[in-house]
Structures are given as structure tokens and as C-alpha cells.
Amino acid sequence: MTGPIVDVHTHLVPKGWPDLAAACGGDGWPWLRIDSERAAMIMVGETEFRPIGPQTWDPVVRREDMDADGIDLQVVSPTPVFFAYDRPADQAVKVARIFNDLTLETLAGDNRLIPFCQVPLQDPDAACAELDRCLAAGHVGVEIGNHVGDRDLDDAGIVAFLKHCAEVGAPVLVHPWDMPGGPRLDRWMARWLTGMPGETHLSILAMILGGAFDQLPESLRICFAHGGGSFAFWLGRVENAWQRRGDVVRGRSLHPPSTYLDRFFVDTVVFETAALRLLVDTLGEDQLILGSDYPYPLGERPVGEVVRKAGFLSGGQQQKLLSANALRYLGRS
């Protein structure tokens, strides 16, 4: 293997954030319940959201896990529960600044850990300003949620922000979040098991059928988490619908959906060799990047196992998925 092995999809939760209600205004913010030196619980109001351990806040533990899994570089992004897109923009600006600054403090300039920031995406001008501030401070890219309320990624304001990302050379990681709930989806983590893939699929469709890719420069480097959700499996259905029901399906797109497959990356968090083969066959070996969703329990460990065990990949293809494609995405090749 030549080149560093790069994991582009990991998260952190810094320790020691302030009382967000006092710092940002409003109420109902996430807070951290400390259960022990090595265990904590992210709380939203009085509801337990997610248990976390030192992997989320301690870079020493993170680097030990990277060494155990053979990972040289790791992109470290926010945990989406802190995005605050449903709040007034001034509150979202404040919480973004708090967590972006804490991220840099937590990672402390470690050259193996590559920080991505968050932005107040509900306000495109404020989002551009926060991105610029973060890039100047040491962040390398930005993680965004896949929608802002009912506004998907073809929304004019979000497209304007993505244009700015292309102009300043910031890679973008799109992460599903804020999945619908209800009696059928609140069982078995179904929002994560079915809602996340569906959300990501919908947002890729929005960028294609909503005309976003036609408006955006090809220099935009954008990656969709979790293998692009269910998009690759259903591309044939989308293509068929675009051709047969173009009066409804084509939207603002100028070309068939398959035309846009080289405009975005997806990560490899799909867990099964057959699913990885589908991604390679559908999207192409140049559009896949190693990801893990570390350190959360629905992520892949050891990181990169599905790629390393994929016997159908040549050595050159593995090198692309484990290293070269990520370096191109990060603007390092």
C-alpha cells in the first residue's frame, strides 16, 4: 500500500462545553451527563440520546484505536445532534463557534487528525462566514446535515453555500440527521436503520433532480456518508423513472441521473462485501472513500475491514479506496 490510509467519516464530542442555554439562548439544548471518568451520556432535555466514552473526547484513545486498525489519518467531524438547524440563526452561529473552537482545542493540532467544522446552514451568509473563520483557524472542511427542515440540498441558499465551499476549496461531508420518527420508526433504532439510508438517497436525488449539480462547479468535493444510503441500489429505478416519466421526475436536471455519478463521493460504511461491490460497480472505484462512523457502535471496526477483505478488489483498487480517493477529496493529491 502506498500513501496514508485515511478514514473520512468519524465524529467527536468535546468535553467541557458550556451551558448552551446560557451561552446561546433558548432552551432544550443537549448537555453531557458525566457518569464516570470513562462514561458519559449525551442528554437532550431529560432524554438519554447516546452513551459515549473517551474515544469521543480523548485524542490519545483515538490514536490508539487508529494504530490498532492501521489508520494513518482521520477526518474528525461534529456529532450532528449539535447542528441546531431548527433554531434561530443567531443561536446556531453561537453553538457552531463553541463546538468548532472546542474541536480545535481537543485535537490540539495533531497532524493525524483532520478537523471538519459545522456551520449554521439555515443562514447561508452566516454559514459562509463561519466556514471562512474555521478554515483560517485550522479546520480543513465542513460537515453538514442533509437537510434544513423541509429544505433539501437543492435549496437556493444551500446551493449558494456549496458554491462557496467550492470557491474556497473546502471538502463537504453530508451526514443524514433529523430523521422522521413515529410509532413505526421509534422501534429497533429504525430511524437509523431505514431513515438514514432513505434520507441520504433523497438528498442525492435532490442534488440531481433539483438541478444543484448543474448549478455547482465540478470543483466541489462532496461526500455522502453511509455509502450514499440506498441510492446505488435504486439508481436503475431512478433512471427508468427519469426516462419514462420525465414530465414529473426530471425536475430541473439537465441530464439523466447516471450522468452525475462522478460528481460526488460516498464512503464505505456498508459492512458487507456484496454492498461494497454494488458501490464499485455502480459509482465506480474512483468515487469511494474509506469511512467508519467511528467511534459509534453502528460504525465499522476494525476500520476498513470490508475493503481489506473484498477479494474482488485489485491492489490498485484497494489503494484508491483506502488512500488515493480520500487524498483527492481532501485536496491533498
Automatic annotation (TrEMBL):
It comes from Kribbella qitaiheensis. GO terms for molecular function: aminocarboxymuconate-semialdehyde decarboxylase activity; hydrolase activity; metal ion binding. Belongs to the metallo-dependent hydrolases superfamily. ACMSD family. Pathway: Secondary metabolite metabolism; quinolate metabolism. GO terms for cellular component: cytosol. The keyword Metal-binding applies. InterPro entries: ACMSD (IPR032465), Amidohydro-rel (IPR006680), Metal_Hydrolase (IPR032466). Monomer. This is 2-amino-3-carboxymuconate-6-semialdehyde decarboxylase.
